[in-house]
Amino acid sequence: MAKHTSAPERPTKKPRVDFTASRVKGSPVPQKRASKTNAKGQEKEKAKEKEPPRKKRKAVNSERPAPLPTSFKVIAGSYEKLLYGLEGSVSFDATAGLAFTLKPVFIFPAHVSCIKAVAASPHGGKWLATGSADEIVKVWDLRRRKEIGGLMHHEGSITHLLFPSRSHLLSASEDGTLCLFRARDWAVLRALRGHKGRVNAVAVHPSGKVALSVGKDRTLRMWDLMRGKGCASTKLGKEGELVRWSSDGALFAVQTASTIDLYTTDMTLIHTITHPSRLHDIRFCARVTGVGDVLLAGGEDGNLSVYAVSTDPDTLPRIVAQLAGHTNRVKAVQTLSIALPPGSPRASTTLAATASSDGRIHVYDLAALPPLANSASNPNGAASEKLDGGVPEIEPVASYDSKGTRLTCVTLADGDGIGSGGEVGEKRKRGDGAEEDDGEDDGDEDEEDEEWGGVGGAAEVGAMDDGDSAWEDEAEEEGEAEDEGEVESD
Fold it and tell me: WD repeat ranges (predicted)?
């Protein structure tokens, strides 16, 4: 018998055809028996339908811009364990102009050892954190003026404190770790390990997605805050004492002794500043008038020097002003933007507060800085101030004398008043004028906590950690993959 050589017919989706063809009009459609897997999937789908839509995760400090405050607070720590709190206000008179005042509101011993770091939560937040050589981070409520408690997770002196947002605190210690705390209940979300020895400073990128840290091990480490782990590091060849981001995140600075190295995000060294004296603190600040940043540098000579900096390698940084008034080393500097009273020549300004070993706290109005020249002959925006007669000296607009206390650190916090100046966004008062509390039960804090630690990759990480940069992958550096960038969770 001859073999049938015709190609077999292509099988059809018989069940579906049969169901459609044999069903009587108006009768229910036959259903397949659901498998266990399908049943579970259907249950998940039903659960998803009931759940409210989840918000897209954001970076740690991607809060909506808040109105600028009309008043401010200055908090400073000291070697003598004393914590100083000052309330600052500003008024305007058509004849006398702007007037700034400082009034002390509290002075007390906050730790059993010298206070080495202090930080206040931004955008109207109420938290104050202080770190000491006693290895404790203490948390205070600035509104109620009381202690909340102590965070005893470090096994070394606290070297640096930073609030990336109102709802999270980042700390660095001599024990080689960085800890991320959640302000809602002060739980440790992450313990970041990687440095071999003391961590000197940490700085969070303006996007809130990545952070940089420097330490005694002479490395610069990058942390992916969206994933909560170390992602890259590079050897500096010297111990970085401070690291700071520019206001737009295009540059960062690493300070060692009297030198400041300015890098782009791909680790290209574009400038090295050699300061006339040893430095104790540096900070970028956006200009009040014009565009770009200035770099504030507090040194052993008692001056706060103001450098004009640029991302252009051909435009060298240079001192354009000196904020004078101290008779001893400037230990710390912090800045804050505030709204000015109605009738003022401008809607807002930026203040710089300094703490010195001479026991004085000075507040400067950075609107007094020399303006940028916008002429065609000066396309790079170099400072218009002539250097023939030296740089201008700017005197403080307000001062406080602690009578000989050796101040070590300072921070600025929003006052209780909210002005109309600046950007309007996140509300800090309800429509009826009642103040919204950002404490443990605050809805905004819960929302921020949910948005922390997104699984999406940080754009800055990809830009900064490419194959052509000087960054080294954590898993490959010195063959110590098990130790590099280790993350612990409580």
Answer: 108-150, 192-233
DSSP strand pairing (318-323 vs 393-394): parallel
Q: Tens digits of per-residue pLDDT, 383-431?
A: 444 444 578 999 999 999 999 999 999 999 999 766 544 443 344 443 3
Write out pLDDT tens, residues 230-287.
989 999 999 999 999 999 999 999 999 999 999 999 999 999 999 999 999 999 999 9
Q: Which of 152, 170, 153 is CA-nearest to residue 161?
A: 170
Alpha-carbon torsion, ordered 482, 483, 489, 490, to 10 deg: 110
User: Is 35 strand, coil or helix?
Assistant: coil
DSSP reduced 3-state for 186: coil
72-426: CATH superfamily? YVTN repeat-like/Quinoprotein amine dehydrogenase (2.130.10.10)
Confidence of residue 485 (pLDDT cuts 50, 70, 90): very low
Q: Which residue has the tokens 């400041």?
A: 260
SS3 407: strand
Name 397's Cβ contacts closer than 8 Å, sequence gap at least 6: 98, 100, 363, 364, 365
Q: Tell me how far apart the alpha carbons of residues 350 and 365 are, in angstroms, rounded to a whole number.
A: 6
Note the Cα 229 to chain centre separation in Å.
Answer: 17
From CA 281, how far away is CA 298, in angstroms rounded? 5
Using CA of residue 248, residue 251, residue 252, residue 253, what is the dihedral sign? Answer: negative
Mean pLDDT confidence for 365-392: 61
CA distance 86 to 355: 13
Q: Could you tell me which of 10, 32, 30, 12 has the C-alpha nearest to residue 22?
A: 30
Beta bridge partners of 252: 245, 263
**CA distances (Å), origin 410, targets 229, 251, 348, 407, 483:** 29, 24, 22, 8, 34
Between CA 396 and CA 197 the distance in angstroms is 38
Other beta carbons within 10 Å of 80: 15
pLDDT of 329 strictly over 60 = yes
> What are the tokens at 65?
């811009």
Q: Parse the chain into domains and list their residue ranges.
A: 72-426
